Amino acid sequence: MFRRPCRMFRKPCRDPSASPFKPPGSSESPEHVKIKRKVYAEGTYKSVCKGRFIAGPRAGQACVAKTFRNPKYGSFAEQWAGERQAMRTAQQIVEAFNHAMVIKEELRVLAPDIMTCDDGTGERRMVEPLIRRYVKNNNNAGWVNPSGDPWNLVMQALSHFSYHATGGRFLLCDVQGGSVGNVYSLTDLAVHSETAGRFGLTDNGKHGFVNFFKTHCCNSFCRPYWLKIEKPSGGPISTPCAPERKKPRWKVPARVGCHGIF
Ligand SMILES: Nc1ncnc2c1ncn2[C@@H]1O[C@H](COP(=O)(O)OP(=O)(O)O)[C@@H](O)[C@H]1O
Ligand SMILES: [Mg+2]
Ligand SMILES: [Zn+2]
What we know:
Residues 13-32 are annotated as: Disordered. This protein is an alpha+beta fold. The chain is built from 3 helices and 11 strands. Strands 1-2-3-6-5 form a 5-stranded mixed beta barrel. A 4-stranded mixed beta sheet has the order 4-10-9-7.
């Protein structure tokens, strides 16, 4: 695990049926899922129950079903539209990050399907594979997980990379998910843009960019040439960072290719 990337041997699987993960896009599914009534977790916007896929290529696997908690933020369809747009952009950024070969391991964005829940309610909810050992890496208000775990450092670098690779137009944050072997699965990502709200309720616009760089400490997975917000008086906006407490075990390649996206 965590070796220098090699372009020749890394072939991400593009066949959704061969994997429990699907690229964003496919959303309406005729399949049903078995869901427990008890709420497993709650976030700011969503309520989450655990369950199991009962049909299709993921039959038997554990899943979560998410529903929006508060109708004051709009109907299910309206809130889902914002989520979906953020998810699609997140997917493009994550693909660019994978191509840039910052690490050999692969990152994936989980794409929920809208499925009918067999819990007596018959509700349609957003269903995606359960992530065991769930970790929150950063949020959309500048909070950073202080862990020196290499995966956590990669996730902070992913957020920084997103700003660079989009030419300062977007910033991917609210990075959360979990690793299984060499793959880190991400869910519920937020994207800040130059126009707050473009990517739904979690898009804080330019304030989001500033809040990220106020607390972001570049680590060994970031590149010195990646775009940053500068203070009006010059110099990076972030406060000086303490050296990484624990050196990541990964060997970082000398240089990465940066694919201009968007
Ligand atoms: N795929 C998943 N596997 C396991 N737990 C999850 C998964 N997705 C979400 N959760 C749990 O549910 C919580 C809320 O879900 P999330 O999608 O982040 O909602 P919100 O938009 O309200 O932040 C998360 O903080 C996490 O604890
Ligand atoms: Mg969340
Ligand atoms: Zn950085």
